């Protein structure tokens, strides 16, 4: 089967929601300004919406897998209520960096797994994140378009685009 779909591969903490450090309860979950507009825009253009997130708080013992699953259900229900749709796929790594697993960003395996399962053409897709590890995961997976949300613009030789907010990102997604 050929890869015919395009996708937004989205980091969670810092993109979908404000990163408050190891967010695991809905009381601490606050949607990022502009995320509903970004998701709606991408969906209207036919993009699959795929969450790619490191959640090392699970293996570090800060919260449980059940906490993560409950918060993910809340996220999906909130998107459905607000937008009439939710994310097309959720892919996460529960490992801490020192575990040296195969799935933690910046390694590309979560993106590649999602791309395979959803028949995604990486040349037509975007990786959207707020950390260098998100951008490197996109580059390592050969995602053509990598957008970094940052207010601390960096000089870099890497081929990602730095954006000051989600509105600026939305303008680049066509």
TrEMBL record:
Q: Which residues cross the membrane?
A: none
* Superkingdom per UniProt: Bacteria
Q: What is its main location?
A: cytoplasm
For this record, the Gene Ontology CC terms, alphabetical, are: cytoplasm
The record ties this protein, via InterPro entries, to:
HAD-like_sf, HAD-SF_hydro_IIIA, HAD_sf, Heptose_bisP_phosphatase, Histidinol-phos
Q: What is its EC number?
A: 3.1.3.-
Cofactor dependency:
Mg(2+); Zn(2+)
Q: What is this protein called?
A: D,D-heptose 1,7-bisphosphate phosphatase
- Name its species: Helicobacter pylori
Tell me the classification of the organism that encodes this protein: Bacteria, Pseudomonadati, Campylobacterota, Epsilonproteobacteria, Campylobacterales
Encoding gene (name): gmhB
């Amino acid at each position: 089967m050929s890869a015919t779909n395009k996708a937004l591969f989205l980091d969670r903490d810092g993109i979908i929601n404000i990163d408050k450090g190891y967010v695991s309860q809905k009381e601490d979950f606050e949607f990022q300004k502009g995320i509903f507009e970004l998701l709606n825009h991408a969906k209207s253009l036919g993009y699959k919406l795929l969450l790619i997130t490191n959640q090392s708080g699970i293996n570090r013992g800060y919260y449980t897998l059940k906490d993560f699953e409950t918060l993910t259900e809340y996220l999906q229900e909130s998107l459905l209520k607000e937008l009439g749709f939710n994310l097309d796929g959720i892919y996460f790594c529960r490992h801490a960096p020192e575990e040296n697993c195969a799935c933690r960003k910046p390694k590309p395996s979560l993106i590649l797994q999602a791309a395979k399962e959803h028949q995604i053409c990486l040349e037509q897709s975007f990786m959207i994140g707020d950390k260098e590890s998100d951008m490197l995961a996109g580059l390592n997976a050969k995602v053509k378009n990598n957008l970094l949300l940052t207010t601390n613009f960096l000089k870099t030789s890497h081929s990602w685009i730095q954006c000051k907010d989600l509105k600026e990102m939305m303008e680049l997604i066509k």
